[in-house]
Specification:
Elements lengths: L1 E4 L20 H8 L11 H8 L6 E5 L11 E5 L24 E4 L1 E4 L2 E3 L14 E4 L11 H8 L6 E6 L2 E5 L8 E4 L2
Antiparallel strand pairs: 1-3, 2-3, 4-7, 5-6, 5-10, 8-9
Length: about 190
Amino acid sequence: MYQINDFEFDDGNAGIMGIAFDATSNIEQELVNSPETFDLSGATPIFNILSQNDVQSFFDIHLSRANDSDSASSGTLFIGTHDDNFTNVAQQPKLPRVDPTHWTIAMDTMTVNGQSFTFNESSVPGLPNGKIATVLDSGFSLPPLPPAAVDFIYKTIPGSVFVGDKIDSVQYIVPCTAMTNLSFTFG
């Protein structure tokens, strides 16, 4: 069992640790495919931790939220164990991954203030009708939602103002006191 608090490691280093699949690591692919050497040292950190230690093959990420004025917040990465506050997750139904190169699961619905949004058909092969592939990514500030879904969310917020298309993402200005009830349903 490994627990990494605030993403600070035993050797004093701190920062971001990649948890992608090895199929997406160009470094690992080059080392494995090299005719001079067959080397797995370029594998992703999560692969190396799981393959070099006697731990179960799962991990949990617990991220905290800081006040808007704070510059940083903390997080904990649990490898091969669960956060004591969420141990019942092991008894929950498992959601299958729908894309072999990303942490991607099928999303059943997205609702805004009780109204369901209908996504276009998914481009991921084998996904059931009415579902869309959703990438689970703890480090993405602006999720890649289709513009129609962004409009569906923000047009319901009183006082929101559309300010245009910026770098392929729809942008809105929203009053600080505005709220909406946004829900994503999986499984």
